[in-house]
């Protein structure tokens, strides 16, 4: 046979007609499908950017917005770099922006719009609670002599036709404490140049009143200059006018320090929220007979709890404590306190 002639011919049948030749060391060519993420459109990118920037806020501001039901996307930022500030969130509630509605109300739920006095009260309380750093202190006092004084005043000719209650003596105690510690009768003012503390010369005593329209806080103007009969009459008239819905705008503005009598509801005390524009509020609890140590002997005494909240920017703990204790001392022996006050005038 000639050199180079084939000796044997072998026929190989491939399972795949499309099989390609294989080079040693390279393996079979595999058709890998390259998968890429779909490229975002300009609209999608704009939406992502808007989401990332429209809700820029610190954690405390986010919590405030959540508590108030405010959608951060609806708030216009005024902070540096487009950051939403606490004032932006509070301002959005005052400007009437719709809060986050959350879940749909359940079947049979009673949903009512918040308007008028209730809306004004809610806005004021939110503004105060999230602006003024509140501190609340308590003290209990034996009011045996206060009740004795109330009984004597009711039968006194100078108080004929005047409703005298323990609240009358509490009001006198607050006024006396203001005279000793004028700083509790102040207003914190934010100005373009910083902050000022305005200490009022007159005591315009606010009295929180539960009325059919909601919570109202009319104030007795120039209460610090009144004698006790006039003060008692003014407080009673102010509350009755508020409950009858006849309070004027002047009655409901201009207070400098407030009393809220939660004792009439059977409550011992609480943590009252300061009325906006003021620096202190006193909550008066119910009078309850309790065991009390007097001269080393346990006896049953009428005990009242006083709870005072104050703005820590204006009133520090020492001043707040002294002012509250002075009120308690007045109620523990009001006759002596009244006589001493008149002797110093």
How would you portray this structure in words?
Helices cover 33% and strands 19% of the residues. The chain is of the alpha+beta class and 345 residues long. It has a domain at 133-344: Chloramphenicol acetyltransferase-like domain (Chloramphenicol Acetyltransferase), CATH 3.30.559. The strands form three sheets. A six-stranded mixed sheet has the order 1-10-9-8-4-7, with helices on one face. It has a two-stranded antiparallel sheet with strand order 2-3. β2 (186-191) and β3 (194-199) form a beta hairpin. α6 (166-180) crosses α7 (228-243) and α8 packs across α9. It is elongated and about 150 Å long. Residues 91-113 are annotated as: Disordered. Its cofactor is (R)-lipoate. One of its GO terms (molecular function) is lipoic acid binding. Keywords: Acyltransferase, Lipoyl, Transferase.
């Amino acid at each position: 046979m000639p050199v180079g002639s084939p000796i044997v011919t072998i026929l190989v049948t491939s399972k795949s007609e499309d099989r390609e030749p294989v080079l040693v060391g390279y393996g079979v060519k595999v058709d890998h499908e390259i998968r890429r993420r779909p490229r975002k459109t300009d609209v999608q990118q704009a939406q992502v950017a808007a989401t990332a920037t429209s809700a820029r806020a610190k954690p405390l501001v986010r919590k405030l917005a959540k508590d108030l039901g405010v959608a951060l996307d609806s708030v216009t930022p005024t902070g540096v770099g487009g950051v939403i500030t606490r004032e932006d969130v509070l301002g959005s509630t005052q400007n009437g922006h719709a809060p986050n509605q959350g879940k749909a109300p359940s079947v049979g739920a009673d949903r009512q719009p918040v308007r008028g006095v209730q809306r004004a009260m809610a806005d004021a309380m939110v503004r105060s609670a999230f602006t003024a750093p509140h501190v609340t202190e308590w003290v209990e006092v034996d009011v045996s002599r206060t009740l004795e004084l109330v009984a004597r005043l009711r039968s006194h000719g100078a108080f004929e036709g005047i409703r005298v209650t323990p609240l009358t003596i509490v009001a006198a105690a607050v006024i006396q404490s203001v005279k000793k510690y004028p700083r509790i009768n102040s207003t914190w003012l934010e100005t373009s140049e910083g902050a000022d503390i305005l200490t009022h010369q007159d005591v315009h005593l606010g009295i929180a009143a539960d009325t059919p329209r909601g919570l109202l806080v009319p104030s007795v103007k120039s209460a610090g200059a009144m004698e006790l009969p006039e003060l008692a009459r003014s407080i009673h008239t102010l509350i009755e006018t508020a409950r009858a819905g006849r309070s004027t705008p002047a009655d409901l503005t201009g207070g400098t320090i407030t009393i809220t009598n939660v004792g009439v509801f059977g409550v011992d005390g609480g943590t009252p929220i300061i009325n906006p524009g003021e620096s202190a509020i006193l909550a008066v609890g119910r009078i309850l007979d309790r065991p009390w140590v007097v001269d080393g002997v346990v006896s049953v005494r009428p005990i009242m709890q006083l709870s005072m909240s104050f703005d820590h920017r204006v009133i520090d703990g020492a001043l707040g404590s002294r002012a509250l204790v002075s009120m308690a001392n007045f109620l523990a022996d009001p006759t002596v306190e009244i006589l001493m006050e008149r002797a110093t005038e």
